[in-house]
Amino acid sequence: MNTRKAFCHSSIVIAFLWMFMATGAMAQGLHADSLFAVSGKVVNESNRPMAHVNVSVPGEHAAVVTNDDGVFTLKCAARPPFIIVSHVGYHQRRVNIVAQNDSRGQEGLLIKLQPSTVVLQDLVVVSGNAEDILRTAMSKIPANYSRDGELYTCFYRETVQKRRRYINVAEAVAKLYKSSINSSPLADRVAIEKGRRLISPKADDTLGVKIMGGPNTPIWIDIVKNRDFILNDDDLTYYTFSMDVPVTIDDRPQFVIIVTPSHFAPYALFGGKFYIDRETLAFTRAELSLDMSDRGKATQYMLVKKPSGVRFKPREMTVLVNYHYDGQLSRISYVRSFFRFNCDWKKRLFSTSFTAQSELVVTDRQTDGFSVPRGRDSFYQRDAFFDKVSYFEDPDFWRDYNIIEPTESLEEAIGKLKKTVAELQ
């Protein structure tokens, strides 16, 4: 069975526009009063905020990423001696956490990352052919990723905008079961542990479209597990390969391979960059975008269903996947997706632009003593996120969990949505 095509049939319902789900979450199983919280902001050498920077506690599974403002909060069972801050192309930072009067946290850290450089002469391989390096990395996937089933706790957030106005915000704590790397990706499971959504109640925000995606998205775009997504022999025949300037991730040198799809492929393909660890040849990161040169093919890939009077025009689809190396194995750690498209109605003069973004960060991991989500507890391919959760107001909703901190603009948007809901009730 072609799992790439199977996962494409998983749909996202756009009722009050669109529900895109990827999974996420990350409960520590602790009460907020007993957690130690570290918060701060990460900037680059020019003091500009850095988004999607990984912040973790060495020796533990606790981890988060910074938001678009560079801000993070990391909650731990106890005060860690230090945290590790890392991002592609930058030196890893070890930040000491000092004891303070407030035993429950440390706030206001300002962490500056410095760019790293890789000496080209140091990158010696048997073959300098980009395709050979990529295929060798593919052959080493069984050795570089877990052969045992594991249960991840994650945080997930999804936002949808109509033009520049937010019309949907969804958040969830989820359990993501990853089966052995030798198993089919169809053996993986996603279950929502805790979630909520806020949807615009305005009638003109209703679209009634279904787009590929759905709650199983983190399974579908796991490039090393779901080889049919891109890393399969059939699809690779439609690509050209080249080497890009090498970088470091977590102070580990990486090969960077550019893959460019052919316009003559029978369906839309993803192109972009693969980052491969120089020593282990494990895939560390993938930055991919759907080829939009043929809008018809892109529409076939992205669109599942739409009303007859709506015209769908794809503009952009990108995905980002990160894997974290713990010294022995690599595991999926962060997933981000972005969709941009226009819709218009045959009787209207102008089209309306929509964007949707989702991100998932793995914040905890269990290797034993867990139950695999099954039956009603897990999502089927066609299940939509809004079928499982509803909106409610609770200021302490995320108190016991690690989350991706909301940006200032998102907090403002949530406030406006709440006000609109209240006015129309």
The largest sheet, given as strand count, sense and whether it forms a barrel, is: 11 strands, antiparallel
* Continuous helix count: 7
Percentage of β-strand residues: 35-45%
Question: Could you give the order of the helices and strands?
Answer: HEEEEEEEEHHEEEEHHEEEEEHEEEEH
Q: Give the % helix.
A: 10-25%
- Radius of gyration, in Å, reads 21 Å
Shape: globular
Number of DSSP-assigned strands: 21
Q: Classify the secondary structure makeup into a structural class.
A: mainly beta
User: Uncertain spans, ≥5 residues at pLDDT below 50?
Assistant: 1-30, 121-127
Mean pLDDT, rounded to whole units? 83
Task: Explain what you see.
The structure is a single chain. This protein has helices at 3-8, 130-139, 141-144, 217-220, 233-236, 295-302, 408-424, and strands spanning 11-14, 36-43, 54-56, 63-65, 71-76, 82-86, 93-96, 105-112, 150-162, 165-178, 189-199, 209-212, 239-243, 247-249, 252-261, 270-277, 283-290, 303-305, 310-325, 330-345, 352-366. The protein has 425 residues and is mainly beta. The strands form 4 sheets. Strands 9, 10, 11, 13, 14, 15, 16, 17, 19, 20 and 21 form an 11-stranded antiparallel sheet that branches. The longest helix has 17 residues, at 408-424. It is globular and about 60 Å long. The model is unreliable at 1-30 and 121-127 (pLDDT under 50).
Summarize the entry for a quick read.
With 425 residues, the chain is mainly β. 12% of the residues lie in helices and 39% in strands. Strand 6 and strand 7 (93-96) form a beta hairpin.
